[in-house]
Design brief:
mainly alpha; 5 helices; 123 residues; rod-shaped; single chain; 40% helix; 8% strand
């Protein structure tokens, strides 16, 4: 890679160009452009939902979303990507229906109404 190509990558990346556009403009491999940007800290992290550039703060975990609204909207549409390892299967002590509980190993009732009915003897 020539010094002119390196300078061109830096200029195009500072303008917000993507790896694909830079590689096409310079007639290079996309992986070459990615590697150069990664090695020279030219990678621009973007919000997973809206694509806005994210500012990285030194000694902090890299951001994934630009704000809470984007984070909640992304997880709402991608619930299947959650790593749910703590799903427990139970049978309600009152109505005897099977139910699943996420993250709570000690549940005994499937709903609040079953709990109240059992606790206070409501038929």
């Amino acid at each position: 890679m020539t010094s002119e190509q390196k300078q061109a990558i830096q200029n195009l990346r500072s303008q917000g160009q993507t790896y694909i556009k830079i590689a096409a403009h310079l007639d290079m491999s996309i992986n070459t452009v990615k590697a150069f940007c990664r090695r020279n800290s030219l990678a621009i992290n973007r919000c997973k939902l809206c694509g806005k550039p994210l500012v990285h703060i030194e000694k902090h975990k890299p951001k994934t979303f630009c704000n809470d609204r984007c984070r909640q909207a992304w997880w709402k549409t991608n619930r299947d990507l959650m790593n749910k390892r703590a799903i427990y299967h139970f049978v309600c002590q009152r109505c005897k229906k099977p139910f699943d509980s996420y993250g709570n190993r000690g549940r005994k009732y499937c709903s609040h109404s079953c709990y109240i009915a059992e606790r206070f003897g409501v038929p």
